[in-house]
Amino acid sequence: MQTAILKHITDFYESAIFIYCAGLFLFYILLAVLSLIAIRRSLWKNKIRGQQMLVASPLTPGISVIAPAYNEGVTIIANVRSLLALNYPRFEVVIVNDGSKDDTLQKLIDEFELTEVNFAYRQQIPSQAVKRFFKSTNPAYSKLLVLDKVNGKSKADAVNAGINASSFDYFLNTDVDCILARDTLLKLIKPFMDDPQRVIATGAPLRAANSCDVEAGVITRVRVPRSLLPRFQEMEYIRSYLLGKMGWTFINAVPNVSGGLGLFDKDIVIKSGGYDPGSFGEDMDMVVRMCRYMCEQDLPYRIHYIPETLCWTEVPATYKIFFRQRVRWARGLAQIFGKHRKVLFNPKYKKLGLIIFPYNFFFELLAPLIEFAGIIYYIYIIVNHLINWDYAIILLVFIYTFSILITSLSMLWDQLIFRYYQSWKEVCQLCILALAEPFIYHPTVLFCAIRGYFNQLTGKKHTWGNMQRQGFNQSPNLQKTI
What we know:
The chain is α/β, with parallel strands linked by helices. The chain has 15 helices and 16 strands. One of its GO terms (molecular function) is glycosyltransferase activity.
């Protein structure tokens, strides 16, 4: 009797896992098809309106580039010069010195001839106190504004202060150590100007800058990271942005705009309350709150992603830093579902409640838990000689093959369309790496997710720590808080 009951439970569990995997694979296939359509549409639109029209037009909206800085003294000058050199007719650069303990602020003062000024600062969203404001006495740096504020222990608090001080209706949220393409603002503002509906945010793919050639804050050659861990992350980023975000863009259901590069409608951000300094996933939380505000006000809106890589950032090169980052990300995802639980399956929130949240709930939040439970289950039935080896092998081979196919497809699309790498050898290196991902990289990400959920459930205090960066052909002692 017990054996029969156990067999029924086993059959039910295996059927449920099969249905779950089939649903996930169908979503991936659908996103891949929609992504290809969205990419082709985006490239076609870019042919219609040239960038020079935006540069010359007096109607091109102004943009505030907001970049928090904490202990960035090693590279702050080169990075700020890079931001000031962006190709756009009307913009300002707002650097928020978030209580740096090194010489970040002093280097800015000396290099850009800054002097303390009186500034009409209006605090529309909460942040730690701003102590001083600096502008340059040199007209060449008239676009630069530097804030010196009390440390808020999170990037979100610093961005809020930058938003309060910004002059224009749109702002770019980025990191001061990110390397941006010179035409970043021109490309990100286009959806705001072209779409008949109100666009509240646009984003673009990020890429690993590890091992890339950089001169004067400009990427001169894109290279595949030499180290194994950054190379896995490069592969993951390409797949996530090109196959994921572009597919969601096609149906206007983008779930998140990265905190490393995102252009936002400032008015909607302020009305949504600004960034939450207490959130571990402040970028996704901000987008969710913006979408909730638009739905609650019954206002149509769109969020766009463009397929071109416009931002390069140095990804974690050590497992210690990688663990800390991914645990925080997983904790942030769990925190968001707890904070916005009323959105899930709620038709009031339209695509956010009926598509974005259900997908993220079943295939992002629950996926690590289901996978971990599946591993425990398979160990149990193997030990008790209950496993159906034919079924198990077929399922594992199918999952493994599908994973490699999706990853390789995204690598090939990226190279065929944009050709960021100079040789196909580099692309093949990433495709070959896909063979090892299920055995090396994916279990690491799974462990981080489980740990993040556990920390969130138990309320364990998060230690932000410092990220040791190798820098872009610079000193290896550069640190950045994550």
